[in-house]
Design goal:
The protein is built from ten helices and nine strands. The chain is of the alpha/beta class and 270 residues long. The chain has two domains: 62 residues, no CATH class; 200 residues, Vaccinia Virus protein VP39 (Rossmann fold, 3-Layer(aba) Sandwich). The chain binds S-adenosylmethionine. S-adenosylmethionine binds next to helix 6.
């Protein structure tokens, strides 16, 4: 195949938000990073654009790939996140992530925005976080320590302060997107200080009942028609307050949601 034809294919793929990566190079890189599954059976496991971006995001943000604080099905959740993010492309309004930790999901979203529009520099995307980790869990966030809570007691998924990463470190990791807007503070309180605007895409990855409920109640009425809130922790057994927070807010708003097998759920403004 001539260089000109290769360039043409690269260009055409770029126009549709895809990047052409040589199969051998991708396989080698993903094996080296321990990303290759022995027997991949689902598209996200072999999607070269997704896998390459995920590997870059892990490396750039320094997000750990395993360990107690890393939840299951993370790759499939991020794949869903990006699919939904592509679906809202073209809907006017801001995009926001509440709960960024080291910036991995924000990186993936902004890198995809750049694939869709090469001039993307982060403009129109905002991050809201304490940059001091989780807030204090409440009674709704308690999980049983064993089969009988009366006997085994209850505990929190993680203590306040878990997932702490200073704003400067996140800015550094996301320096390819200098126009991202950062808002530091405790959710829900900080939400009342945000500029009044409408949203096309909202990613809530906050783990706990109170901030999730407050964020759904704040952002849903500000969604554009066709806009989506992606709730990362909805079906997570480690974070029972997330489901309750979303259900409480959805009931107050008279909305129903779409739960996914990954643990995520979607709220769509119709
Ligand atoms: C699970 S981490 C987010 C993971 C991230 N989306 C990623 O891609 O790795 C949870 C984040 O929520 C933030 N957070 C939790 N409770 C908060 C609250 N009440 N106000 C502001 N930020 C909060 C934490 O600081 C942390 O950054």
């Amino acid at each position: 195949m001539s260089v000109a034809v290769k360039r043409l294919i690269q260009h055409a793929a770029g126009c549709f938000g895809y990047q052409v990566v040589p199969v051998a190079a991708y396989a080698k890189a993903s094996r080296a990073l321990g990303l290759a599954d022995a027997s991949p059976s689902l598209l996200f496991q072999v999607d070269p654009v997704f896998q390459a971006s995920y590997a870059r995001g892990i490396a750039i943000t320094g997000t750990p790939e395993s360990g107690q604080v890393v939840c299951s099905k993370r790759e499939s959740r991020f794949y869903n996140l990006l699919s939904i993010h592509r679906w809202v492309a073209g809907i006017p309004g801001w995009q926001v992530e509440c709960g960024c930790w080291k910036g991995l999901s924000s990186f993936l979203l902004n890198e995809q925005a750049k694939r869709l529009k090469p001039s993307h520099d982060g403009a129109g995307f905002m991050i809201v976080d304490s940059f001091e980790g989780l807030s204090q869990p409440t009674a709704e966030d308690r999980v049983p320590r064993g089969p009988d809570p009366a006997l085994h007691g209850e505990q929190y998924g993680a203590p306040a302060g878990t997932f702490c990463c200073p704003q400067d470190a996140v800015r550094q990791s996301l320096s390819d997107f200098p126009a991202i807007e950062y808002h530091q503070g405790w959710i829900p309180k900080v939400l009342s200080t945000l500029p009044e605007r409408t949203y096309a895409f909202v990613h809530l990855d906050l783990d706990l009942h109170d901030p999730i409920r407050g964020a759904v109640e704040y952002f849903f009425p500000r969604l554009e028609r066709g806009g989506v809130i992606v709730l990362d922790d909805y079906g997570s057994l480690a974070w029972p307050g997330a489901m309750k927070g979303v259900d409480d807010a959805a009931a107050a708003l008279g909305q129903s949601l779409i739960p996914l097998s990954s643990g995520q759920a979607l709220l769509v403004r119709r």
